[in-house]
Design a protein that fits this description.
The chain is mostly beta strands. The chain contains two helices and 14 strands. Strands 2, 3, 4, 5, 6, 7, 9, 10, 11, 12, 13 and 14 form a twelve-stranded antiparallel beta sheet that branches. The two termini are 27 Å apart.
Length: 215
C-alpha cells in the first residue's frame, strides 16, 4: 500500500516520546482494506437498467478446472443509475451502474465485516458475454429446465474456422422468460453459453431478491 510522504514521515515529525496514535489506521481496518478487491469501471454484464427491481439470477461459471457460482440482482433504480448486487461465495458487492454501463460507485461486504466498505474502481473491463455472434449459424427452439421451472429458449450454435482449417463451436441459449442480467439480446436473457474452455449456465432465477447491502 502506497502512502503519501506526510503519512510516511508523520511519526517522526510529530513525536518526541511514545508513538502518536493520531492519524494511524487501525490494524483491523488496514487488513480489511488490503483484502477488498477492486472492480472495473465498465460493467461486464447485461442491460440492468431495463430490468425490474428484485429480479435475480444464479449462474454457474466454469473456466478450465475452476468452477464457481455468482448471483446477480437488481436492487434499486435511481436517477443516477441502477444498483446491482453481485454475490460470489460469501461476499457481495453493490454497484451503481449508469445507463451507459459504467460503474459509478461500489461497496464490498464479507462475513468478517460489520458494514460494507467502498471498493476501488479501475479503468478497464472484464470480458463480457454479450458479444456479436458471427460464423456458420444454426438455431433451434426447445424448452429448458432451470431450477423447478421450464422455459422456452432459443439455442444458437456458431461454427468458426481459423486460418489453419480448425473448426471451433460456440453454443448459446437465450430466453425471454429470464432476466437479461448476465447478458441479453432481442432473444431474451442468457440461459447458457459454451465458448472455448468457458461455460456459463443459469441455474435459478426469481423476482424477490432481498438486498444484503444497505446504501
Amino acid at each position: 500500500m502506497l502512502l503519501a510522504p506526510a503519512a510516511l514521515f508523520g511519526c517522526f515529525l510529530f513525536s518526541s516520546g511514545p508513538e502518536s496514535e493520531v492519524g494511524k489506521t487501525p490494524e483491523d481496518l488496514r487488513k480489511v482494506r488490503e483484502h477488498v478487491p477492486p472492480v472495473y469501471d465498465a460493467f461486464p454484464y447485461g442491460p440492468v437498467h431495463q430490468i425490474p427491481e428484485g429480479r435475480w439470477g444464479r449462474y454457474q461459471i466454469s473456466q478450465g478446472d475452476k468452477s464457481y457460482e455468482i448471483v446477480l440482482a437488481v436492487t434499486a433504480h435511481t436517477d443516477a443509475g441502477t444498483w446491482v448486487e453481485v454475490e460470489q461465495e460469501e461476499t457481495v458487492s453493490a454497484l451503481l451502474v449508469s445507463h451507459q454501463g459504467l460503474v459509478l460507485e461500489a461497496f464490498f461486504l464479507d462475513p468478517g465485516m460489520e458494514k460494507a466498505v467502498p471498493q476501488k474502481i479501475l479503468q478497464g473491463r472484464e470480458t463480457g458475454a454479450d458479444k456479436e455472434l458471427s460464423g456458420d449459424r444454426s438455431e433451434q427452439q426447445r424448452n429448458v429446465e432451470i431450477g423447478n421451472q421450464s422455459v422456452p429458449a432459443i439455442f444458437v450454435e456458431i461454427e468458426h474456422e481459423d486460418f489453419d482449417g480448425r473448426i471451433t463451436t460456440e453454443s448459446w441459449a437465450w430466453s425471454k422468460e429470464v432476466p437479461a442480467l448476465f447478458a441479453g439480446r432481442k432473444s431474451g436473457g442468457l440461459v447458457s453459453l459454451e465458448t472455448g474452455n468457458r461455460r456459463v449456465r443459469l441455474i435459478a432465477f426469481g423476482s424477490e431478491y432481498k438486498t444484503r447491502i444497505e446504501k
